[in-house]
Amino acid sequence: MKKLIAVLLAMVMAFSCTFALAEEPAQSLPGFELPAFTTTFQMELDEEAALSLLTAAGLPEEYAGIAKTLLPLLNGMGEQAVFANNGLQYDLKIKDQDVFSLVAEATEGGFALSTDLLPSYVLTIKQETLAKLFKQAMEQFQTGIGQLDMEKIMEAAGNIFNYAMEMGEVMQNSVAFGEPVKGEYPLVDDVVFNTEKTLTVDVNAIMEAVKTFAAKATADETIKSALESVASMIPGAEFDPAALALEDVPAEQLPEVTGLVYTITDDEGNETAADTYVIVNAKGKEDNSGDTNTYVYVNETSVDVIVEIPAEEVSVECYIEMGEDGVIVDYAISAPGADVEVTAAVAMGETGVALEAELYVNDPENAIMAFSALFELVGERTKSAFDGEKAELALDGLLDEQAAPEVIGNLMMDLMTNGLSQIINNVKAVMPEQGAVLEQMVGLLMASVMGGGEAVEAPAE
Fold it and tell me: Among 283, 279, 332, which Cα is nearest to 310's?
């Protein structure tokens, strides 16, 4: 009961604090006013491919039929959140039809919230109650912060920074370049590099620098005290200084790292273009099982990194391209029996930002899943928390130990008898077959809860 009350009050406070920023900017953040905005999210799914992946991942056979039936729910599912007029409207959609909604808004006397989960009520709470809750939360927060020794934490952060700078200097000096060799090196399409330098890395010096950093941090009493202070804020957490220590790695087990760097330079050795190509080879065990090859190409607008592990037949590539209107990211992993690629594009327009992403698995032509999201600095709510014939239920009673059980009882009764069935009916109106399966699953779950927690079996197909 107390946990449920805490969740409800926390949700109310989260919404109300957001509205306070928009309604009274002068009392919250000077010069700041939260603008209207809209976020939209849409998903498309290759149902057969998704089911194959679930099966390969170990989906029990008895649930395969249910998964096949319910996956179409995700295909075309979307959501939209609009913040405007001191209120938030959230809609979950299937095939552009609302199946679940939530509206929260500021009122003259406080705050109101309505949701399809509780279709009979408008939940309200007074401004005085919100102020009281906020004061209690701030007191608890300040009590917790009071346990932190902020002066010692800042001193510890300074010590860590100094140790890190020492380590970075050693790492920088552990990389050595050979003399430039002029020539023609057509390593990238439409780009011919004219200068090559060898690259060697003293891995042993780097490991020693890391060990020295860990040793200093572990022995630093200020850092220990600061970490113990932070750990004391987390129930059950304990700080173990030994966790910062590193085990010694024998020199013979360290990889041998060499490479080549290609640039475009003039006769005096000055680089004349941003294009740079780097090849790094890390040789591990004698049987070559630990060898790794890394290829990095950088120019004015993009970065392309490829890492190969030949013995495992594994390669990973990450490509990032930046332009005036957005960013493109392509991440791919290739391994025996599995080729996975994720592509994403972020476009910036006059009123907002758009994101599109796709996931490919073992088929570079057909995406198994596609996402699109849009964030715009415009918006207008079409719903109010007070729409329809609903009774007002004051959440202020949650603070009263005698009144709280009745308030919770009313909420739970509405959820069980009206809310869940309304949402299922909304789904059935759009996708009857899937809605019927959901209805059966919810029925089994409710029977399990009412029956004392017995296992829920898969519904009949």
Answer: 283
Last residue of a domain, one of 264, 296, 312: 312
Split into its structural domains, the chain has a count of: 2
420 near 412, Cβ under 8 Å? no
Give the SS3 label for residue 9: helix
pTM of structure: 0.76
Give Cβ neighbours of residue 161 (< 8 Å, ≥ 6 apart): none
322 within a domain of the structure (yes/no): no
Instruction: Give which of 296, 275, 110 is closest to 193, Cα–Cα.
Output: 275
Backbone angles phi, psi at 80, to 5 degrees: -140, 135
- Alpha carbons 268 and 172: distance in angstroms, whole number: 24
Place of tokens 């017995």: 454
Q: Tell me if residue 116 falls in helix, strand or coil.
A: coil
235, 268: one domain: yes
Residue with tokens 């013979």: 252
Report yes or no on 195 lying in a domain. yes
How many angstroms separate the CA atoms of 220 and 243, rounded?
Answer: 14
**Looking at the structure, do residues 115 and 158 belong to the same domain, yes or no?**
no
In a domain, 42, yes or no: yes
Which residues form the domain of 244?
A: 150-312
Q: Which residues of the chain fall short of a pLDDT of 50?
A: 21-32, 454-456
449: Cβ contacts below 8 Å, ≥ 6 apart: none
DSSP result, 334-357:
EETTEEEEEEEEEEE-SSEEEEEE
201, two tokens = 């890395």
Q: Which of 312, 347, 366 is the last residue of a domain?
A: 312
Burial (CB count <10 Å: 0-12, 13-18, 19+), residue 91: buried
| Each residue's pLDDT tens digit, 42-82 | 999 898 888 888 888 888 888 888 888 888 888 879 999 99
Same domain, 126 and 171: no
Co-location of 183 and 247 in the same domain: yes
Residue 422 lies in a domain: yes
Q: How does pLDDT run across 398-409, given as a tens digit for each residue?
A: 767 777 788 888
Contact criterion met (CB below 8 Å) for 216 and 163: yes
Question: Same structural domain for residues 25 and 85?
Answer: yes
Q: State the Cα–Cα distance between residues 42 and 40, nearest whole angstrom.
A: 7
Q: How far apart are CA 291 and CA 285, in angstroms?
A: 7
Same domain (yes/no): 46, 186: no
Verify that 57 and 175 share a domain, yes or no: no
Burial class (CB in 10 A: 0-12, 13-18, 19+), 112: buried
What are 358's two structure tokens? 């796709």
**Do 114 and 387 contact (CB within 8 A), yes or no?**
yes
